[in-house]
What we know:
This protein is of the alpha/beta class. Helices cover about 25% and strands about 25% of the residues. Strands 2-1-3-4-5 form a five-stranded parallel sheet. The chain has a two-stranded antiparallel ribbon with strand order 6-7.
Amino acid sequence: MLAIDTLMNKLEHDLKQAVNQRKLNNPVMIGIRTGGVWVAEQLHQRLQLAEPLGLLDITFYRDDFSQIGVHPNVKPSQLPPQIEGRDIILVDDVFYTGRTTRAALNEIFDYGRPNQVLLAVLVQRDGKQIPFQPDCCGATVTLNADQRLKLSGPEPLAIHLETASTHT
């Protein structure tokens, strides 16, 4: 259904255009764990960005934190020391409700106030609950209630459509 190379090529193209249009200056790319980091690693290489890739774990910023259990698998965020006034490219794998983006922005703003944030996602799907939307994406899809997208990686990076009968 979704070819990862096609999605990455379109996302890279759209991202280059958005960076030029919005005049991002020496942007910092930040990937949201886990799938967003995998996508960001590939984009970071393709765009040959000078700044090291930032990694963001939003676990403690999620609005459903109390529902995900007592022992979440939290990994440390690795952000550049200077966020204040920087241009940021925030990368995630799938944009669904907008809640992950909200949590990521909350954490980023705890480190400082960026100049601007550009949101890049591999796939945007229906289901938005918060008034956010990606600036660029590899594809927009409509799924049935029993379907979800599952990214696997990092090598090889792949995306699969799962139905209720194929995922637990």
